[in-house]
Automatic annotation (TrEMBL):
Protein name (record): Diguanylate cyclase
Lineage: Bacteria, Bacillati, Bacillota, Bacilli, Bacillales
Annotated GGDEF domain residues: 387-521
Membrane-crossing segments per the record: 6-26, 33-54, 66-88, 100-118, 138-166, 178-196, 208-225
InterPro entries: DGC-Regulatory_Protein (IPR052163), GGDEF_dom (IPR000160), Nucleotide_cyclase (IPR029787), Rev_trsase/Diguanyl_cyclase (IPR043128)
């Protein structure tokens, strides 16, 4: 009864302290992988020592089953979690070790299952051994001890590598404390195992000493995880890295809501309510923020052009980079905003200048109609497409006397008036150009019925003549001669088309008659 009570005081009752530490770790931050693995380690400790108490004091007749199917996997889970914790605590210096974690977990459990399958359970655990020696099969015990010692040593190496690579002072202090505690745990484990194998200690006493050592180490681990923020949360990380950044940086959650922003972003977004910030942005292709975040999950990092309109601060042209943060406990996105307003203004000026240059290169500077070069390109395109059309060549009558009598300024106004009348009488598909001083070209889509085409051309030209030119009491009637050449009826190349229309037009001039002439078939 005394031994039972001592086991209760020294093993069972304190083991629930592991449960308390696990609960507090999860309560502190259940989303943190570090806290979850630490809590799992504490629970594995609790179940291991709870199994030891049940095996020794309550159900000794089932000690073989408890050891092989309960305590052994729990002890293996403890050392696997220990290595996992070391990798997490040493991050980012130990990020390369993460890919080996599946093997770390699989290796000891594979050997454990191998022993259970290949050997008789009574051989693996001889319950009749009561002389203080370990009842475990020597080979099974040796491999178990090697795994425990090896994984503790591996954890020490991982933490030592992290301590060597990490430059942040607080992080180095935590790593140093953990290294020291692991060295002491390893030394305690070796000492107790040596005393057990030397028969200085019985299995029961060794188990109590193991429990005391693991409990003290777990308390130290829980203290370090609780006291120090080993894995900094997103706010600390954000302010450390980006507080002084010259660009605007926003931290978004999965819904696209702003969680945090740096001083430059606050300056740009001053006066805008935080929950309405994203509505003041206009992104490339008008893509919603949620769709952009979904795209980032596939490509990890994307870049778009964006515009920001702040009624109080003005407008900005921006280059936006969006990146997913994977090291935090929740999915967070960093939005980098670079001001390229001055570059965009220069780009727009350059584009407008280029457009103006192209416009001037294809348009008559006086009338804004197409010039000779532009008409030539348009005619070539229509001929290549085998598109039927009629080319009307128009030459003004008595234009030189107008210049001589009223001056070139009035003459220019007269030409502009003619251009305006031609545009007003044209259809959307028509093309009108000025190819000389008083010569105009009008290209209209032709029809199979030539008589109908002649009627349409005559009607449109008659409309041009209806509105005379007036300027400060001066009224000048519109008079011109015109000739028509049709593609492909009259010619199949530009030179011949122009020549035929020109001949038809001069036929009318020689007759000293305003009208229209078309070549006969």
């Amino acid at each position: 009864m005394n031994e039972l009570f001592m086991d209760f005081l020294t093993i069972l009752l304190p083991s629930f302290f592991f449960f308390y530490m696990a609960v507090t770790l999860l309560h502190r931050n259940i989303k943190s992988m570090l806290n979850r693995i630490a809590a799992l380690l504490m629970l594995a400790f609790q179940f291991y020592f709870l199994g030891e108490y049940i095996k020794t004091s309550l159900l000794p007749q089932y000690q073989m089953q408890i050891v092989l199917y309960g305590n052994s996997p729990m002890l293996l889970l403890v050392i696997c979690c220990l290595v996992h914790l070391s990798v997490l605590i040493g991050n980012p210096a130990t990020s390369a070790f993460k890919r080996f974690l599946p093997f770390i977990y699989a290796a000891p459990y594979t050997l454990w299952l191998g022993f259970l399958i290949t050997k008789d359970h009574r051989v693996l655990y001889n319950a009749e051994v009561t002389d203080g020696r370990s009842p475990l099969d020597p080979q099974f015990l040796l491999i178990t001890v090697l795994f425990i010692a090896g994984y503790i040593l591996l954890s020490v190496i991982i933490l030592a590598v992290s301590w060597y690579r990490v430059k942040e002072i607080k992080h180095r202090q935590v790593l140093r404390s953990l290294l020291l505690s692991l060295f002491l745990l390893f030394a305690w484990f070796v000492l107790v195992t040596f005393l057990l194998q030397s028969k200085v200690l019985t299995s029961r006493n060794a188990m109590i000493l193991f429990f005391i050592g693991y409990l003290l180490w777990a308390v130290t681990l829980r203290h370090l995880v609780g006291k120090y923020d080993i894995m900094p949360d997103y706010r600390k990380l954000f302010h450390i890295l980006f507080k002084s950044a010259p660009t605007a940086i926003l931290l978004l959650d999965q819904k696209g809501d702003v969680k945090e922003m740096n001083p430059r972003a606050k300056q740009w977004l001053e006066g805008i309510p935080v929950h309405h910030i994203m509505s003041y942005f206009q992104f490339e292709n008008n893509m919603p923020v949620v769709d952009m975040l979904a795209l980032v999950q596939q490509e990890n990092e994307v870049q778009w052009e964006a515009q920001l309109h702040n009624p109080k601060k003005g407008d900005w042209d921006l280059i936006m980079g969006l990146e997913l943060i994977e090291e935090t406990d929740e999915k967070l996105y960093v939005m980098h905003l670079t001001d390229v307003t001055s570059l965009k203004v220069a780009e727009r000026k350059l584009l407008k200048s280029e457009q103006n240059y192209k416009y001037l290169a294809h348009h008559d500077s006086l009338t804004d109609l197409y010039n000779r070069a532009a008409l030539h390109e348009l005619l070539l395109e229509k001929i290549e497409r085998r598109e039927s059309f009629a080319l009307i060549l128009i030459d003004l009558d008595n234009f030189k006397p107008i210049n001589d009598r009223y001056g070139h300024f009035v003459g220019d106004l007269y030409l502009k008036h003619i251009a305006l009348m031609l545009e007003n009488c044209s259809q959307p598909d028509d093309k009108i150009g000025r190819i000389g001083g008083d010569e105009f070209v009008w290209i209209i889509s032709s029809m199979d019925d030539n008589s109908e085409l002649d009627r349409i051309v005559d009607h449109r030209l008659s409309l041009v003549q209806k509105t005379p030119f007036t300027y400060k009491g001066i009224e000048i009637p519109i008079s011109f001669s015109a000739g028509v050449s049709q593609f492909p009826r009259d010619a199949t190349d530009i030179t011949t088309l122009m020549k035929n229309a020109d001949e038809a037009m001069y036929t009318m001039k020689r007759a000293r008659k305003t009208g229209i002439s078309a070549l006969a078939d």
